[in-house]
Specification:
496 residues, alpha+beta, Immunoglobulin-like, 8-stranded mixed sheet, 6-stranded antiparallel sheet, 19% helix
Length: 496
């Protein structure tokens, strides 16, 4: 994918709005601006907008706690109503013609900034989604290549035309929370890191705008630049009074590990044609991951690799799906389908980005347990003979799900992320797994205070055990709706 001529700079100006308004409320020394990344010429139905505080002065950024309120108005002048509370917002169908603004408040200092009022337009014909892939932490001296996975639209014949409208850049952050565009990085697919970058966070961003044709912005996961040179780690440790550690790590054929953070973390790197089969820590099986962190000197780690199915020429049920190739949840989707725990929405589609309902999740868990119910279903809104009736009844008997009232389950209601975490947490309790978590796990998430009281422990358990990740590096979005891909990934991690 190329960006031609001087379009790259123009795109960034079009996509990002820096809102510099006088703060309201307290007369504190704190000041900041709102950075709105819209991904189009204006807010559009179905297109996610992203907000960040930037140009922060008068306070330590790490000590701040920002709240976000997206507000809609019919005329753009009065009657603004809050419709969403997180750093991201996607206007729903039916909101075209209305007006949107963002109210951002820093709670500790009582400083509020309000963005400009912007009109909401119709959606685009094509939207880029998915993930701007980079994987793992970045090593000092390493060159990382970003790439775009996932384009959603009415046709796949997009490549040549899309090439005229797409741009990309790199962003950096000192704390992994708020990112700034790196000057001179627009149009650069590759980024190299040196010793000056150690400890900083980076991410790759792909954005697209082309009238009503192509729109959207996707972000990679954030990468922390680390030193993987043992000698240098030792020197830094000696200077800082931190000792290197060496956990007992056993690795099978088919991959290797790379230690960083003075031996307290490792990257797990399969060879080409191999995947991670299992990870155990002190005899306890862990979820499949590309790294382990917060290791101890006395930890005993065993990592087993196996040849990938594609390398062995094995074909599967999911080979018929045309909408999962390149998707960030590809491995999880394949596992769930092959295990019979999930099925497609048609013979050729899985619909990974569609919302998942309460009934769908309970059905997956019921199939996993080969569940049968001993009682009649207590919920009046669960139809007799429906594909999920026996599974809802079983899950209710085992305390895995409850209704929103004594007689209603709302099977067709989309699951929120915190509801998803709560059900997985109760399922883990049913399976007699350890349910511990450390409250410090929320420190890197700016919206953790938005988690409902009844879901805090469940979300904490899922995040700490790497069953659920944040929607972004700094947000959990507890009230955001879960997708089929997210649920497949969460169950995949839980089971493996």
């Amino acid at each position: 994918m190329k960006i031609r001529g001087k379009k790259a700079a123009a795109f960034v100006i079009c996509l990002a709005l820096l809102i510099s308004l006088m703060p309201f409320g307290s007369s504190a020394a704190l000041n900041y601006d709102i950075y709105l990344l819209i991904g189009s010429d204006a807010p559009r139905v179905g297109l996610t907008m992203y907000a960040y505080p930037v140009s922060i002065t008068g306070a330590d950024p790490d000590s701040l706690n920002f709240k976000y309120e997206w507000q809609l108005s019919d005329d753009g002048v009065s009657g603004f109503t809050t419709v969403h509370r997180s750093s991201e917002y996607t206007p729903a169908a039916g909101n075209q013609g209305k007006y949107v603004r963002l109210v951002m408040n820093e709670e500790k200092n009582g400083v509020t900034v309000i963005s400009s009022v912007l009109p909401i337009m119709d959606g685009a014909n094509y939207t880029i989604r998915g993930k701007a892939d980079v994987s793992g932490n970045a090593k000092e001296g390493q060159t990382v290549t970003g790439k775009l996975n996932g384009i959603v639209g009415k046709t796949k014949d997009y490549t040549d035309e899309l090439d005229n409208y797409i741009t990309y850049w790199w962003e950096e952050s000192e704390n992994g929370k708020w990112f700034d565009i790196i000057p001179g990085s627009v149009g650069r697919v590759k980024m190299s890191f040196d010793s000056n970058d150690i400890g900083k966070y980076y991410r790759f961003v792909v954005a697209c705008t082309g009238g009503d044709m192509y729109m959207g912005t996707v972000f990679s996961s954030s990468m922390k630049v680390v030193s993987l040179k043992v000698g240098e780690d030792s020197a830094l440790a000696a200077a800082g009074g931190i000792e290197d550690i060496a956990p007992d790590i056993t690795v099978s054929e088919g991959g290797k590990t790379l230690a960083y953070d003075y031996g307290r973390s490792i990257l797990i790197v399969p060879d080409e044609g191999y995947v991670v089969s299992s990870i155990t820590r002190n005899g306890e099986k862990l979820a499949i991951s590309d790294r382990l962190v917060n290791l101890d000197e006395n930890d005993v780690i065993e990592i087993v690799f196996r040849q990938s199915d594609s390398a062995l020429g094995i074909k599967h049920k999911y080979d018929e799906f045309t909408d999962i190739s390149g998707h960030w949840a590809y491995d999880a989707i394949c596992y769930m389908v092959e295990s019979g725990l999930a099925s497609g929405t048609s013979a050729t589609t899985f619909s990974p980005d569609e919302r998942i309902t309460r009934a769908m999740l309970v059905t997956m868990l019921g199939r996993l347990e080969k569940a049968t119910a001993g009682k009649s279903c207590p919920f009046g809104d669960v139809p007799a003979g429906s594909y999920y009736e026996s599974y809802v009844t079983w899950a209710n008997e085992k305390g895995i799900v409850t209704g929103d009232s004594a007689s209603s389950f709302y099977p067709d209601r989309p699951l929120t992320r915190q509801e998803l975490a709560a059900i997985i947490y109760r399922y883990a309790k049913y399976k007699e797994k350890s349910l511990k978590y450390s409250p410090e796990i929320f420190e890197n998430y700016t919206d953790s205070s938005e988690i409902a009281d009844w879901a805090v422990h469940a979300v904490g358990y899922c995040v700490e055990n790497q069953i659920m990740n944040g929607r972004t590096a700094s947000t959990i979005e507890p009230e955001g709706t879960a997708t089929r891909a997210e649920v497949a990934t969460i169950l995949y991690r839980f089971l493996r």
